[in-house]
Amino acid sequence: MNKNSKLIKFIKFVITFFIVVIAIFLALKLWHNYMNNPWTRDGRIRADTIMISPDVSGLVEKVYVKDNQLVKKGELIFQIDKKRFLEDVAKYATLFEIQKSEYQMKKKQFDRRFKVNNDVISKEEHETATYQLEIAKANYDKALVELNIAKLNLERSSVKASEDGWVTNLVLKNGDYINKGENSLALIINNSFWIYGYFEEHKIPLIKEGDIANIQPLGTDFIIKGHVESIANGITDRDNDFGKRLLANVNPSFTWVRLAQRIPVRIHIDEVPEGFILRAGVTCTIKIIQNK
């Protein structure tokens, strides 16, 4: 019994020893993987976005799209009431015709008086007639510009998509009054998606442009293929503030526990798995495969 008891204790010791060794080995491997392999869970799918805003002010006559709708370049998004703009075009068209007739009359008078018999006309009369002709020409040009602006405002009352993309955050309704330059909705440009990965600063030296990137969106088994396109050259220094007279406002205290800064890495999307739809703002895990 004594020998059996010692053997059992020895076996327990060996098993415990191997379990501890394996645990230490796995812990070291995990630590090495965390410290030296460039990966992050702080990734975001991004896309280029256009803020749609009108170039003129007015009442919204009709909204032609719905939220989250895919639109084509040049497609009408909403129409601003154009009655006022039609009236402006008619008004400036009339003024243009008046100034055009005035200029043509002045030019004919000038040509008739000074090109037929210029010897009997005094220099003063010639200068006066030239001045009046130039004024008529300037008024004609001004009326033409005003007419073109009125036509442009009429055209801009129809707000259209400047690119193919997805309408998002649409809150505009029929009858709303919208001001010139006021953002009415966002348009996510189609096929403009890319990924930003925020990597800890000590992992940045391990990342090179062109490295392969595997991206896994949160909560899915899909793997998006990509490659490192560029690495940001700077981020905001939160301790580098300015005080009075533009002197550096340095924090006098220093924390011993320093959190690693995260540097943005832009990743170009090469391949999207079938069945997965790219959506801006989605969180993802990014693993970089270094080129040897």
Automatic annotation (TrEMBL):
Keywords: Membrane, Transmembrane, Transmembrane helix. It holds the Pfam family BSH_RND. The keyword Protein transport does not apply. It comes from the Bacteria. Residues 49-189 form the Multidrug resistance protein MdtA-like barrel-sandwich hybrid domain. The keyword Ligase does not apply. The chain crosses the membrane at residues 12-31. Residues 192-288 form the p-hydroxybenzoic acid efflux pump subunit AaeA-like beta-barrel domain. This is Fusaric acid resistance efflux pump, membrane fusion protein. It comes from Arcobacter venerupis. The lineage of its organism: Bacteria, Pseudomonadati, Campylobacterota, Epsilonproteobacteria, Campylobacterales.
